[in-house]
Amino acid sequence: MSCHTAFGLLKQARESTGWAAFIWLAATAAAAGAGIWSTHFIAMLGYAPPLSIGYDVGLTLASLGVAIATAFGAAMVIRTASSSTAIVASGIILTSGIAAMHFTGMAGVRIPGRFVWDEALVAAALASGTVLTCAALFVFTRRPTRYPRAVAATLLAGAIGTLHFVSMAAARAVPDPSIAAPDDGLARGALAVGIAAVMLTILAFSALTLFADRLRRVNRALASHGAALRVSEERLARALDAGSDGLWDWNISTGQTWLSDRWLTMLGYEPGELEGHVRTWQRLVHPQDEAKALELLQAHFDGHSPVYEFEHRLRRKDGSWGWVLARGKVVERDNLDLPQRIVGTHIDIEGRKIAEQQIAHMARHDGLTGLTNRTSFHELLRLALREAADAGGACAVMCLDLDGFKMVNDTVGHMAGDELLKLVAARIAERIHPADTVARLGGDEFAVLVKSNPTNEGLGSLAKELISAVGEPFAYSGQTIEVGLSIGIARAPQDGLVEQLLFSRADLALYQAKAEGRNCYRIFDAALDEAITRRRELERDLRMVLANEGLELHYQPQVRASTRELVGFEALVRWRHPARGSIPPSEFIPLAEETGLISALGEWVLRTACSEAAGWARPLKVAVNLSPREFQQGDLPDLILGILTETGLSPNRLEIEITETAIFADMGRALSILRRLKALGISIAMDDFGTGYASLATLQAFPFDKIKIDRSFIGQVEVSPQAAVIVRAVLGLGRSLGICVAAEGVETIDQMRFLVDEECEELQGYLFGKPQPIGSFAEAIDGREAFEGAIAPAPVRSAAAQMAFAS
Length: 807
Ligand code: C2E
Ligand code: CA
Ligand code: CA
Hints:
Layout: H1 2-15, H2 18-46, E1 54-55, H3 57-80, H4 84-107, E2 109-110, E3 113-117, H5 119-142, H6 148-169, E4 171-175, H7 188-242, E5 245-251, E6 257-259, H8 261-266, H9 278-284, H10 287-301, E7 308-315, E8 321-333, E9 339-348, H11 350-364, H12 374-391, E10 395-403, H13 405-411, H14 414-431, E11 437-442, E12 445-450, H15 456-471, E13 474-476, E14 479-481, E15 484-492, H16 499-515, E16 521-523, H17 526-547, E17 551-560, E18 565-577, E19 581-583, H18 585-595, H19 598-614, E20 621-625, H20 628-632, H21 636-647, E21 654-658, H22 660-664, H23 667-680, E22 683-689, H24 696-701, E23 706-709, H25 711-714, H26 721-737, E24 740-744, H27 749-757, E25 762-764, H28 778-782, H29 799-806
């Protein structure tokens, strides 16, 4: 028990400083020393040597002093240190203290004889005592177990016991008659009283450590509780300081209210301006919120809801409405459990409410025009269709698309584009019935949900009105801007009752309106559906084929008429569709032009033809067709130059074929492009001459190198005198202007004869070869063999003619 107490006191000493530490150390020493001493003397009480025994008072007390002093030293060493050195040092001090106490005590024993010691046993006692003491101190300082104090105390008690009892075993009392029997020393009874006193002291110390421990714990708990209280007080003060919440306190039985300054200023009133009565509050609540507020208050009063909580409007001093979040809780009830007093807060949620409303509006409207947006348009359409299905009503969807909007955006600028969209939106909104809805779906796409009069007549007249309204010119910063409008219409229930289907059908009708020249409207027609779908699929496939390089080029030979010698090829594009077989260019070139895919297609053809031709052994020419749309692109000369550089084809081997249409779109521009191309060394051929305007002025004004007489004339030269006259005239014109004339579509020997006789310079047609992959002309290109187009079996009119030609 004394060891346990001593360690408890030592723990206190370790946790204190200054004088307190000194006092705890002294107590530790006293407890430990007393324990060591009493162990010795309790054992001595049980020691019954065959001689009478007495104790010397001085030495007995000295032995207690020695025990206490050495324990003090040992405790001091271990108080602040836990190192192994400190443990061993402290252990040795303590062990020697125990030993010193023991032998001092033994020296104080008075017997009629002497003690004789077995030295080996004494050494063993010292050694085992030291080991056990060090172990005790190690356990106490390093805490390797859950109960370090108890284990250390047990070990130390073991050390003390071992030292005493092994030493006693080493002692043998040898009677010596020369020494008188003790009678003047301490009697056994006195020693027993002394031991009891020491033991009580130890008990007292033990109680003291226990008490100190408790005290410390209570103190610690008190300190943390105090801190928590401070924090919560501080929080409240801060909350009131920050003043974002208004506070209110309502005495329900008297109707008196207290409103904090913030409550009042939140609504624009001066502090103390309003009467402190619940009527004041009731007057300020928005009429639409009052009933609900009273209902919620009652529910809280009746205990149905733990708090009163409501977002509502209150009248500000300036008469406007402000949003608050009110919260309250009954804090007093009478003995009948009726509420007496309720207190609560007001939080200003104006900003949040405004944001919420804005977000709600933004989610449903288009930011630019303020019209309904796509999402909510589809929602409205779904509703209208459900109505139509349930009540047998009707409605229609109009899909609107501006014609030429992109041009405005690109040429006048995006600001103008935005202004234009706003104006268009306003014009459409002005003309529709209040029951109808107009929405902007994105870009220059609009839609109208027609519920007012969805008959064919009604829809037609509305569509016409919208087209003419949008078609009126706009003034924008001094400029006049004009756009067109195309409309596609689908009706419910006849064209569909499912939102997606109806919408896609209106879109198909729009597509058709666009294909049919724009600035018009079309109502969905099931018969047209298929044709348009096919076209759309084709368009989709064309995009894919362009991306995947699924096109190929065929080459048709062009020969010198006089010698039938090969001079070049015309490159003609081919599309092998996996499902539809070979699609003729007459079908997909116009499609590519409409969809804008033509630029990618044309670039591909140019690049492919040039790189192919660059690899030919003979410097034959290659002619490439350019569609009017491609020709209008301003960067065409740069593009071609780039391709020539890239492929290494000499410019004078490239020929561009264009039709008159390409030139008439914008003469000035066309002229400048042609001049730039010619300056590069590229030659220009006028294709399909005779089918268009066939204007002589064009021929004179533009720097053509070649005229290609259209195959429709060549096919007629033998049967139609007019065709022959025209061909002759063109040939004469070419000669007088110094321009080479070529004939295309030469199929028979008679046609060839005629052309040779009329001094046509170049010929092209099935008679000399059909357009084919370049591989079919490998020998002719290499120059290994003469071109045999002139004798190729061609569809000729008569055997005689064939003979004549062969000869
Ligand atoms: P085009 O420029 O007048 O091309 C000549 C067309 O006449 C070719 O039709 C060719 O196969 C055909 N042809 C050639 N010799 C004879 C003949 O002896 N008799 C008959 N009846 N026809 C003959 P294709 O290849 O179907 O091309 C049609 C049109 O497609 C071309 O007319 C051209 O305007 C356009 N085209 C073809 N390839 C391209 C291209 O790569 N780019 C552009 N922009 N247009 C192209
Ligand atoms: Ca051509
Ligand atoms: Ca042609």
